[in-house]
Amino acid sequence: MIQTDVLVIGAGPAGSVAAAKINKAGYSVQVVEREKFPRFVIGESLLPRCMEVLEDIDMIEELSKCGFQEKFGAKFLREDEISDFNFTSQFTKGWSWTWQVPRADFDMALIQQVIDRGVPVHFEHTVTGIQFMDGEESISDVVDKEGNTFQIKARFIVDASGYGRVIPRLFNMDKPSVLEPRKAVFSHLQDIRRASFDEPNRIIVVSYVPGVWVWIIPFSNGNTSVGFVGNREFFDQYGAYQTEQFDNLIANNPMLHARFDQVEKIFEPRKLEAWSSKTDQFFGDGFVLTGNVTEFLDPIFSSGVMFATVSSHLASQLVIQKLEGKEVNWADDYSKELQRGVDVFKSYVMAWYDGTLEKIFYAKNQDPLIKRQICSVLAGYVWDLNNPFVAEHEVILKKLARLIDAKLKLNL
Ligand code: FAD
User: Fold this and answer.
1) How far apart are CA 4 and CA 307, in angstroms?
2) Which of 308, 16, 39 is nearest to 8 (CA)?
3) Average of per-residue pLDDT values in the chain
4) What are the distances in angstroms from CA 43 to CA 20, 29, 46, 329, 375?
5) Ligand 1 touching residue 312 (CB < 6 A)
6) Which H/E stretch holds residue 17?
7) Helix 13-24 / helix 49-56 crossing angle, nearest 10 deg
8) Given the CA of residue 37, which atom of ligand 1 is nearest to it?
9) Cα of 37 to ligand 1 centre, how many Å?
10) At 112, phi and psi to the nearest 5?
11) pLDDT by residue (tens digit) across 342-394?
């Protein structure tokens, strides 16, 4: 049996951040990861807020050597209307840029730095069972791909297993999400005609038809991630299989057709459905959940990796306090804190799908201060209570949309 201070389940961004932070504090860590890395995962557009975490765990310098495409803002397109947010003019003080990354490479670069710092990472090993003992210690069953098993005894567990949801599944903690189930169909394409388009390396969110949108995320390797998001019924009218659906969706939009028609696909289009998941309990005796395991909302604002890194960073600071023998108020200092940020994005996700945000994004004569405040939310600074678009997230978007409607009626 292996003994360790902390067992981290999963080697995605949440797992890497936890392993690096806890290792930096001098505690022993073991990482168990089900897949062989590099492995494909979707979620390629980052937010500036995650750079603060990567900076704190000394990863920026190595990541910079990977040459990922830099990202300086968020650009939304609806036919010939453009709504452009530049992170340099955001309201909250913070990072003004981040990256667009093929996640296989990005996640590999993160976990490689963890390995280089001496942390054992068991790839192609799966955590299949956990037994919590008296106090906070636990014994986890780990199985390799040949079926060989061993156990890890840990003082604490960080469950960063993403869609694997190890602890919520083992201990029946899953709850249905309040968000409507959606579907995405996506691929990576050789973006050979990129240079003939305006701002060719920028990420764009294209409104396709009401309630359906497209992400275009160019990478520095010449490929671009393209994905359609909508409800299941929407895709059914474009064919039975995702390749047919993807090709038809490209063909039916003049801009997408001009840029991507007949270009080579790096892989056949894949689909993901009903990804929103949640649990009400983010911690328990001897464990904490971080990253996607806590709650994943929706891809529209690229908040997944930001929440994965920020939640893991916060949780790791508290794990360290715990290992130092200090009292930790998990409910206030972790769950409530994290939930505050999640709730802000949830309001924006709902406002996107009910059309409120599009009304705001494409309104004429926009107030520059409001634009800067919304820009900070889009950069991931969703804990800044000085920003009314954070503090009053539940009501302020609807109020602003009503004001825009009223001005339109008066022709202002
Ligand atoms: P993951 O990256 O999923 O890592 C978890 C790891 O745990 C995996 O490697 C898995 O193999 C491992 N694991 C699982 N079970 C076990 C087990 N039993 N034992 C051991 N290991 C295990 N986010 C963004 O930031 N930007 C985007 O543009 C974006 N677009 C998205 C588009 C779509 C359609 C979807 C569905 C999501 C998108 N996301 C995006 C979200 C993003 O994919 C996730 O939020 C992000 O990957 C979460 O990171 P993580 O470290 O929590 O989990």
Assistant:
1) 26
2) 16
3) 95
4) 21, 26, 8, 31, 20
5) no
6) helix 13-24
7) 40
8) 9
9) 13
10) -60, -35
11) 999 999 999 999 999 999 999 998 999 999 999 999 999 999 999 999 999 99
Separation between Cα atoms, residue 70 and residue 371, nearest integer Å: 22
Ligand 1 centroid from CA 41, angstroms: 6
pLDDT at 412 over 80: no
Indicate the pTM of the whole model.
0.96
- Measured between alpha carbons, how far is 332 from 339 in angstroms, rounded to an integer? 10
**Between 122 and 180, residue with greater pLDDT:** 122
Q: Which secondary structure element, helix H or strand E, spans residue 360, and what is its range?
A: helix 356-361
CA of 237 to the centre of ligand 1 (A): 29
CA dist., res. 128 & res. 140, Å (int): 8
Distance 383 CA to ligand 1 centre (A): 22
In this prediction, residue 298 has a pLDDT band, given cuts at 50, 70 and 90, of: confident
Half-sphere exposure of 225 (CA within 13 A, CB side): 24
